[in-house]
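Hi,

I'm pasting everything inline rather than attaching a file, because the server keeps stripping attachments. The sequence lines come first, and each chain or strand is labelled.
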Amino acid sequence: MITDFTPWQSLGGGALIGLAAVLLMALHGRILGATGILGGVLRFADMDDWRLKAALLVGMAMGPLVLLALTGQTPAVEIPISTLAIVLGGVVVGVGVSYGGGCTSGHGVCGNARFSRRSLVATVTFMVTAFATVYLTRHVMGV
Amino acid sequence: MKLVSALLIAVIFGIGIALSGMMNPAKVLNFFDLAQIGAGTWDPSLAFVMGGALAITIPGYWLVFRRAAPLQAPRFQLPDTKVIDRRLILGSATFGIGWGIAGFCPGGALPALGTGEPEAFLFVAALIGGLLLARALETRGLRSKPAI
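And the predicted assembly:
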């Protein structure tokens, strides 16, 4: 499945991700990490924290709907792989981000923006294994 | 007010993810498929996402951290650990493998729920399963404890 190169749209989308991360830090003093938010919603120890993370989770899912209301369209979600790969990948991602302490948003954007060495190591590591995995699945296993 | 601002900030994030291409596994997997460079079909868009995000967060955080505290909370809550250990590296390596298999990362999949795409729900359900599995391993007495 070939996809178009969209440098300006991706740059603009990235800038909005960055803006959201800066606003969350300025107002709430929190890292905007999808893993931390989902993980927090799955813990029920501190209800103030739970409500904040639930609001963040709901807002994220509303993003494409607000975009649809504003522009009349929403970018595609295209799945070039099997349902089995989606489920397997989901479980593997869940275990990995749990031990790694974050994902693309928490380490890749927020951690790197505050020059955390842990986040730099995490980012380089998950990028390298993602490149290697796609090489293996597409060009060695031929999935 | 705190919840309203959090919701609006997350909407901005969700719009950014949708526009950027991060919620589209086809685009994510084409970015990771370097073998397409030779064929001329490689899609390097996602490098621009990280570039655009860091271009805002690096100066933005610098300005924010000049203040003593955030506007709607008593203090900044930042991770204080600086240790680069096996858990960080193996966990991140595992995450990258899953990202390469499915094409979704957590920040890409959560906004994708808003599109109603069934595979996004399936991925998030499996992601929750993975997070809970890591916690179950922790309570089973595995020495290495997950961070989140």
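The radius of gyration of chain B is 18 Å.

If the labels don't parse on your end, tell me and I'll reformat.
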